[in-house]
Amino acid sequence: MADRVVLDAHAVPVFLGEEPGWAEVEEIMRTGEPWMTLVNLGEVAYILERACGSTAADEVWANLRAESRPGGVPVRWIDVDDTLVRRAAAIKVRGGLSYADAFAAGAASLLDCPVLTGDPEFRVAEELGVSVRWLGRRAQPGAGLLPRDVRILGPRRCAGPRSQEMSGSSVATPPCKRPRAGASSGPAKRSAGARDLSRACRLWPR
């Protein structure tokens, strides 16, 4: 039986940046049963477009929406209908999750499968009975591993980690090239976890 999970907006940048747990995302995209909502795909798109430009965002969008992905499996999409929207609203009202994250949690609840994420704010979803599979660790949830920032080299180069919260959610976000205090003004060095976005996208079978 295929490994069914819901991907939140955290999982895709984790794969692209080769952050802890990226191989788990790749395995799901190749042999599992990945599900998403268009709300969370939209979140992925604006994260990538803001960090790396519209071309990168369009490329990933087209890949994830493709009905046929040679060498991999197509993403399945749960309808954003009355049932899902109402479930997301009920989760959001409890607090602690962004509205977009509430859609991922709601989808997992309706599909009776885990959310695949490294976003620590999904601990709130766990408390509400939503199953969460934590990227980057196989141990028990709540072990204290927090996601690192994704480092992607795209149209705009990235120069090191930078924490950023968006709409109350700790979504992994590719940092922009921005000089830090005391940092050299010379060319940014490519960190061990950084990778070229177009190269990363080629790993997603089309």
Low-confidence stretches: 138-200, 202-206
Instruction: Give Rg in angstroms.
Output: 16 Å
Strands of the widest sheet, in order across it, are 3-2-1-4-5
The helix-strand sequence is EHHEHHEHHEHEEEH
Tally of extended strands? 7
Distance between the termini: 23 Å
**Number of contiguous helices:** 8
What percent strand? Answer: 5-15%
Largest sheet: 5 strands, parallel
Estimated structural class: alpha/beta
Give the rounded overall mean pLDDT. 75
Shape: globular
Question: Quaternary arrangement of the chains shown?
Answer: single chain
Q: What share of the residues lie within helices?
A: 25-40%
Task: Describe what this molecule looks like in 3D.
The protein has 206 residues and is an alpha/beta fold. It has eight helices and seven strands; from the N terminus they run E-H-H-E-H-H-E-H-H-E-H-E-E-E-H. The chain has helices at residues 11-16, 22-31, 38-52, 54-65, 82-92, 99-111, 123-127, 197-202, and strands at 4-7, 33-36, 76-77, 115-117, 132-134, 152-153, 195-196. The strands form two sheets. It has a five-stranded parallel beta sheet with strand order 3-2-1-4-5, sandwiched between helices. The protein has a two-stranded parallel sheet with strand order 6-7. Helix 7 links the parallel strand 4 and strand 5. Helix 5 crosses helix 6. The longest helix has 15 residues, at 38-52. The chain is globular.
